[in-house]
Amino acid sequence: IIFDKTGTITLGKPTISAIELLDKEFSEKDILQIAESIERHSLHPLAKAIVLKAKNAKVKHIQATAIDESIGKGIQGIVAGKTYSFSKPKQQEGMAIDMYLGKKHIARFLFEDEMKQGSKAIVKKLQKLGIEIYIFTGDKESAAKKLVATLGENIAYKADCSPEDKKKGIEQLRKQGKTIAMVGDGINDAPALALADVGMVFSNEEQTAASEAADIIFLGGDFSSVMDALFISRNTIRIALESIISGIGISVLGMIFAALGYIPPIYGAFLQEGIDVAVILNALRTSRYR
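User: That's the sequence. What structure does it adopt?
Assistant: Structure tokens below.
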């Protein structure tokens, strides 16, 4: 199982810890006002944190135009005739977004996030089931290493991943003959979710490219949903195999007895219907999973 980090293992609701002003012409209120007007068009967790900060600061809303968001690269827009862009810093440790006016670096937003409750325990349970755990994250090496150290041992990771890097990572694991589940939450994970054997996504109310690409959608942020999905799937396959083997087995046995003359045709017809009903009732047990 490959996990994204933000919004998957962590809460995915980062908050702004600091705003670094790099141009004296702009105040923090100016930066927030411009950033909110552009970032409110994005569903990325860091964009939502900027919008929330602006709302709490009660900055006046202004209109942005020509919004253009590129997966894994950032977002830009025009405010008052000037082009502003937002992208991830190349060297910054932890979570951050750089803000540019044209090519001029004018501000940096720093964020912090919290690990979901139970993440560490559930990762350990998955490992006990013989499942290999990987983390593919867009965060820097130090942030990824810190997360892995918190979660436990025997977890492989790739840091500073673009959406394309996550796809390539899955392709490499496939060449090793592995069956792969990808667990993510955002639009950046959509290509990897589509490529994996099973795509799982944490989604609230938004219909995104990630939820379109996934096979399983978790309506909420509870990390234990991954464990539930695994057990529901295994339970469903077990019951399906029971129904297939028992249904076909009894039918074949009935045909042999019928061919030898022990079961008249009319009784055989009722027997076959009885087998079908029994198989259907057995299949309904999948909905009783707790």
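The chain is about 40% helix and 20% strand.
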